[in-house]
Each structure stands twice: as C-alpha cells, then as structure tokens.
Write a structure and sequence with these properties.
single chain; 218 residues; alpha/beta; Rossmann fold; 6-stranded mixed sheet; 6 strands; 22% strand; globular
C-alpha cells in the first residue's frame, strides 16, 4: 500500500499545476522519548489536521507542496513521503493516508534538531516553483546530539527558508521547551505553537497549519 502511495506521489508532483504558494516540509520527531502510543497520536493527529475542512481548503487554495520526514539522532533522518502537490481533496486524502501508513522508524535514538534542519533544507531543491519554503519541526526535547543548531538555523535563514515549530511540553504547566524552540530553533519571523503533552498535539498541529497557510509566514 505504501509503495503505491509513493509512486502516486511522484506522478502528482510531476503533473502540471497552478502556482505553488508554499512548500511545507513536516519534520516529525521519532527520537527515543516518543513511544509507539505517542507516535500514533502524532501521525493520527497530523493526518486529521490535514484533512480538516479549513486546513484542506487552504492547502488546495495555495496549491501547497507537502513532504513528510522523520528525524531523531545524528544520521537518522528520512524523507518518508516525497513532495506532493495538494491540487484536490483527493491529493490531501492520499497524503494523509500515507502519513497514517508509515510505521515508526528510528526507535531509541537521541535528539538531533540541527541535523533535522540541515536534512530538511536539502529537500527544497525539488520544489523550486514554490514561493515560500517552510520547515515544520515538531518535537518533545532539546538538542542533545550536536552543537550545530546556530549554524543550521543560520543556513535556513541564508537559504530563505522559514523554520516553525510545535513544542510538545512534558506537562500542562511547562513552557520550557517552547521558550527553547523560540530562542534556539525557529528562524526570525517564524513561530512556535505549544502542545501541552502529546495528547494535545492534534490541536496544536492544526493551529500551526492554519497559521502557516492562511497568513504570511515571514
């Protein structure tokens, strides 16, 4: 089933379409702190958000290009779903089905946010037709694998790529990770949406998608 979805994605990207407003790369944390139950909440919440009527309408209106990557430690980044243009609601349903179908990769690894950003930057060469390039980092922890965040963020800025984030906080009262992402991860003009634990991720990712797709990101 996943092989069919990936083959269809290649055809969709190559097909003629209107102007692409945004290339949006969804970068999902699968480091060791995310267990299987939480992964299912992440992927199900992301798929549901993409298919919600207001987000779906914005995706089609902007002829948005979507891709999904999973990341954890150094050397553990994978483009799990290649770029697909959201031309019709069927394209959104196909992409959402792909999100749900991918098994959890890279278990029990550390958190290399810088590596995730650098890997993501490389993927935008495939979608030069899109007016804006946005990396969407979602994660529940700080960088603990490298010291490369300042350089990675600077490279994104230099390349004209916006980095936004969903910070999955450890509890309802904490804002520590949100503050960290705001200070160390997102680019100028980017923003952070806070999820109060993994169960709140579906709401947070929908809020973030709407904010990205219905007003300028920079």
């Amino acid at each position: 089933m996943l092989r069919i979805l990936l083959a269809t994605a290649t055809v969709c990207l190559a097909s003629p379409a209107g102007a692409c407003d945004t290339a949006l790369l969804l970068a999902v944390d699968v480091s060791g702190s995310i267990d299987q139950r939480e992964y299912i909440l992440e992927t199900g919440g992301l798929a549901d958000a993409l298919q919600s009527p207001d987000v779906a309408a914005a995706l089609v209106q902007g002829q948005v290009a979507l891709a999904l990557m999973h990341w954890s430690g150094v050397g553990h980044q994978k483009l799990s779903l290649p770029w697909q243009r959201m031309i019709t609601s069927a394209d959104i349903d196909r992409f959402a089905a792909g999100v749900r179908a991918i098994p959890r990769p890279n278990e029990y690894s550390d958190t290399a946010i810088a590596e995730a950003i650098l890997f993501s930057i490389q993927q935008f060469a495939a979608v030069p037709e899109c007016r804006q390039s946005v990396i969407d980092i979602s994660g529940d922890g700080r960088e603990n694998a490298t010291n490369g965040l300042p350089a990675a963020r600077l490279k994104a800025v230099t390349e004209g790529i916006t980095v936004n984030a969903v910070a999955i906080e450890a509890d309802d009262l904490s804002a520590a990770l949100t503050d960290y992402f705001r200070a160390r991860v997102i680019t100028p003009g980017g923003f952070v949406v806070t999820a109060k634990g993994v169960p709140d991720f579906p709401r947070a990712i929908r809020e973030k998608l709407l904010r990205e797709l219905t007003k300028p990101v920079s």
